[in-house]
């Protein structure tokens, strides 16, 4: 039996056995190693912020700002901006390594392209932002949590601290005796698990910010260019597909049909006992087989059912030919572009083929819905379930075909069934 283990602290916090697992200790180790790093960065931030605080203080007291203070402030600002992209690199590398204490997922850093590139790359300035956040926000958060822990410890130790000359003051409540401190001590004990989870949330939040800022992701412009190039490739493929289909259908197929007829007529004119009768018959049969093969190739480029019947009719024909009873429900109030129709047809064809070969189902249903955002294709069966793309290339190839059309494939197939294949295809006008 495979045990589903969380791969990061945020996922572990949702589990009931979190306090009894190793994750609290991993969170503690991450927090403990954060303290020296954040402490050093906090001191550096304080040094850099000193001149700014002097200038702000002078302005608030309506005093003239010294030119020397402004000069120092400008020099510190320029120096900080000039050094920050370079200093942040080793800190960010260490933080990516340290993130493994609470997150098993890999984090990829940017490639080193030289000091000059550090000032123009978006990843470098995200590292600077993380270092600034680590030196300012994180110390404040950890300090607040430390105060809460000290308060809880004071509550728990209240019965031993109160009494005699010692009194405990909690906001507006004053505890004068150990008896009065007992209820507060019980509350402190009960609050300990909440503090444990709060520490986990604090560390998980810090780790989430670290992953968000330090994980080198492709730039938005690069992603947009990849999307555009894929759209251009799909468009070029569709145009080339139509050209091949037209050339084969209008050129090679009629000529092969004429050749088959000529061979048939020649067989009628040649006596059966002639030496040429045998080879001629073989050539005629091969020509007919080639016609069938070529017809299959043409149909594989774009099924003729789509041209003749439309998507709903072509899917209905697939359902009629299926060994497993298939119900088709189509809601196609708006037209579907031809490339999307072809992709959807292949999705249904492959999915129904999997139902027949692997599912052991008694019935299946195909649903076609044309919405505002695109076409949704759903194929559901009542089979044994357990479909896994890793055990075969059918679903993987199907996902690749859908991705080429800028769509996505979703699979739900628990053991025991049912299995649902949902494909969402965008329809561009």
From TrEMBL:
Enzyme Commission code(s) on record: 2.7.13.3
Keyword Manganese on entry: no
Residue ranges occupied by any Putative sensor domain in the UniProt entry: 68-214
Positions of the Signal transduction histidine kinase subgroup 3 dimerisation and phosphoacceptor domain: 240-306
UniProt domain Histidine kinase/HSP90-like ATPase: residue ranges: 346-427
Enzyme category, top tier: transferase
Transmembrane segments: 27-55, 67-87, 140-162, 182-204
Protein name: histidine kinase
Taxonomic path: Bacteria, Bacillati, Actinomycetota, Actinomycetes, Micromonosporales
